[in-house]
């Protein structure tokens, strides 16, 4: 399963694969997929890395674990491939983009792979989950791997933007040198977090682009196109 990681990430993380926990983690994942229904599809587990090469990373968004329903997760945090009903967190992300950037966002397309292809690493702390059981693979050892990814990026690169939404993601700030990178924090975009205040009007998307522009990097086009219908503005 390790060979699902693209070559540039393989090289950057090669020391990690020699550690004792790594084969144990892969064995747990293989067993889980054999015995239960798990998500995302096995071939998509490392999609965050497949869509966003190490060299391309400019922005890091940290999620917790994949969606746990059939046909929803595609290996990118917050990204949703079922067009029937958006999860509330993604809907609130789109609402904030609409007000922050004054652009239309879709009601039928939750696939965020276009962000990833521009250099946004959409990284869940835990990369797999059992169907219907959120956080069920949290103790497999994924966090040791994904924490290393965050630390490696923070140490070896400069001028990245880390978007930390909610208490879980904000704990990862200790892995990041704030003197080398921009760390933006907000409450989680889920209704529970967003309705308490601190998500809407955080302006993380415009702030990210302003920082990238300041550092001479190409801005992220946050626009996602509709699938089969004209764009519809979400309203708050």
In short:
The protein is of the alpha/beta class and 236 residues long. The chain is built from nine helices and six strands, in the order ααβαβααββαβαβαα. Helix content is 33%, strand content 10%.
Outline the structure in words.
There is one protein chain. By secondary structure, the chain is of the alpha/beta class. The protein is built from 9 helices and 6 strands, in the order H-H-E-H-E-H-H-E-E-H-E-H-E-H-H. It has helices spanning 7-12, 21-35, 47-51, 88-101, 113-116, 142-156, 166-170, 191-194, 204-214, and strands at 38-39, 59-63, 120-124, 129-130, 161-165, 182-186. The chain has a 4-stranded parallel β-sheet with strand order 3-2-5-6. Strands 1-4 form a two-stranded antiparallel ribbon. It is globular.
What tags apply to this protein structure?
single chain; 236 residues; alpha/beta; 4-stranded parallel sheet; 6 strands
